[in-house]
Design goal:
Order of helices and strands: HEEHEEHEHHHHHE
Shape: globular
Helix content: 55-70%
Strand content: 5-15%
């Protein structure tokens, strides 16, 4: 029952934040992400719960996302890699159609001083699709995103956060499966880069830096930590790196100003 109740509550909170179109699209994206983890966990014989959705009506997203609980021991790096990759890859794939349809249904309009809207940073994938679907935006104009587009943006943002190669994040699982204990160097460098972003670019990253430091950068070892990944999984790891670079934006929520970044009305 708790899964059903949380699911319904999160539908309600996302509807409250962004309406029906946003609610149905963001719930689809989050469900795809978590069911990717769930399917791959069960496929590898690891007991996993159904997703626990986390409603939160006062955030820009209407939710804190969703989680699943896994019990048992990860047998080897291949299993760890497969489970870590499945979530963000599924979420990214499902986000793209919402971004495309959302951009197509969005409005390009003149931005005036009396308009208030939530400014969004542009990840590279958004810039590419915007250029292909809309082209250049005249000076003084901006895109007011359709709810589908905003849900796709949130899905890409969640993908980027999860692929940061630290600790128990999906990116932490992936990087450990590739480098083992040497992944601590990558995690440490990632924390340093986030700290630099916090100080010199966007203080909004401070909360994430603190959370990652509290929960630590260490990763529990699978039973078999010696067997290396095969070539196919290493290729998928390269694809995930490209997805991370396409999805990450140094400043997700810039200050309100008339720049050529997509926004949603407040």
């Amino acid at each position: 029952m708790i899964h059903i109740v949380l699911f319904i509550l999160t539908i309600a909170t996302t509807f409250f934040v962004g309406g029906f179109s946003y609610s149905i699209s963001i719930m689809t994206i989050l469900l795809a992400h978590e069911m990717g983890h769930y399917y791959m966990s069960r496929r590898n014989g690891i007991p996993a719960s159904l997703p626990y959705f986390l409603p939160f009506p006062f955030s820009p997203f209407g939710t804190f996302g969703a989680i699943i609980k896994m019990r048992g021991t990860i047998m080897n790096k291949k299993t760890l890699f497969d489970i870590g990759v499945a979530g963000p890859l599924s979420g990214f794939i499902v986000s793209i159609p919402f971004i495309v349809s959302g951009i197509k249904m969005s409005k390009v309009q003149l931005i005036t001083e009396d308009m208030a809207f939530l400014q969004l940073g542009d990840p590279l994938i958004f810039k590419i699709l915007q250029h292909l679907l809309i082209g250049d935006i005249p000076h003084g104009y901006d895109i007011v995103l359709h709810p589908f587009g905003y849900a796709g943006w949130v899905g890409i943002f969640v993908t980027a956060l999860n692929l940061i190669p630290v600790g128990q994040l999906d990116g932490g699982h992936i990087i450990y499966a590739i480098f083992g204990e040497r992944s601590r160097l990558v995690s440490g460098l990632s924390i340093v880069l986030l700290a630099i972003l916090t100080v010199f670019y966007n203080p909004g990253w401070l909360a994430l830096v603190i959370i990652l430091l509290i929960f630590g950068m260490r990763h529990p070892e699978p039973l078999d930590s010696e067997t290396e990944l095969d070539g196919k999984r290493k290729l998928i790891a390269l694809i995930m790196l490209i997805i991370f670079l396409l999805s990450f934006t140094p400043s997700p929520f810039p200050a309100l100003k008339t720049e050529k970044n997509g926004g949603i009305p407040i």
